[in-house]
Amino acid sequence: MSNLVRVFVNDNEVFVPPGTSVLEACEKIGVQIPRFCYHPELSIAGNCRMCLVEISPGPPKPQASCAMPVMKDMKVFTNSPLVKKAREAVIEFLLLNHPLDCPICDQGGECDLQDQTMNFGSDRSRFYQFKRGVEDHNYGPFVKTIMTRCIHCTRCVRYADEIAGVADLGTTNRGQATEIGTYIGKAFESEVSGNVIDLCPVGALTSKSYKFTPAIKAPTSALPLKNTTQASRRALSQLPKGMPRMASSLMKKPMMAPVGLAAATAVAMMAP
């Protein structure tokens, strides 16, 4: 182990090769660090600041574990009060402009921001002003954009440049005004462009082919009861004692109704 570096993660000893990031050292012993911008196949960006940890000896403020290399006998604390407070603040600022549309978001239930908010965020916010609005872009035939949900992790930008080999995506402006898009309105037409949908940790980039659709406003299909004799008999046989007789008498009247036990029960309940 002479060529390995000894690190202490929450007082647990771990040996890793030189140049290993603190985040990777933590994962080696099963300590999960929350993150948004980090991905093992992409370059380090350090945008989201969600992976903050406390380091000793080191600066007095939490450090981004994805961009911090390990040092000999470094002590890392992933759940100290300082770290918890910092993560809660990061979540609060990410939600500052993020729309609260989880029930209609295609990423709902599989959203990293949703999960991290439940695990590390607060149950209230100090900010109630209007949220920022961002114009959506047309990225081509596969990717649907709702850019007000974007948290500027730049995973899509780095994937396009480093993996797909097309520098079609980029960032413009700075700070709160930052936007991610294509240059001069160009479509993102790479044959592997759909992969950014899986890389996006929120619902900013979703699939056009599998997006949610509005409820179909069509009347419930119904058949004349004279054509549903067998189905009605089966349904009547499952009704409580006394109800089949009432339902049978009502079914003799010409009417339209859906087939099934629920329909027969409803008909029986209509009896005086």
Automatic annotation (TrEMBL):
Belongs to the complex I 75 kDa subunit family. Residues 3-82 form the 2Fe-2S ferredoxin-type domain. Its cofactor is [4Fe-4S] cluster; [2Fe-2S] cluster. The keyword Metal-binding applies. Keywords: 4Fe-4S, Iron, Iron-sulfur, Metal-binding, Mitochondrion, NAD, Translocase. This is NADH dehydrogenase subunit 11. GO terms for molecular function: 4 iron, 4 sulfur cluster binding; metal ion binding; NADH dehydrogenase (ubiquinone) activity; oxidoreductase activity. GO terms for biological process: ATP synthesis coupled electron transport. Residues 82-121 form the 4Fe-4S His(Cys)3-ligated-type domain. InterPro entries: 2Fe-2S_ferredoxin-like_sf, 2Fe-2S_ferredoxin-type, NADH_UbQ_OxRdtase_75kDa_su_CS, NADH_UbQ_OxRdtase_ferredoxin, NADH_UbQ_OxRdtase_Gsu_4Fe4S-bd, Prok_molybdopt-oxidoreductase. One of its GO terms (cellular component) is membrane. Pfam families: Fer2_4 (PF13510), Fer4_Nqo3 (PF22117), NADH-G_4Fe-4S_3 (PF10588). The keyword Cell cycle does not apply.
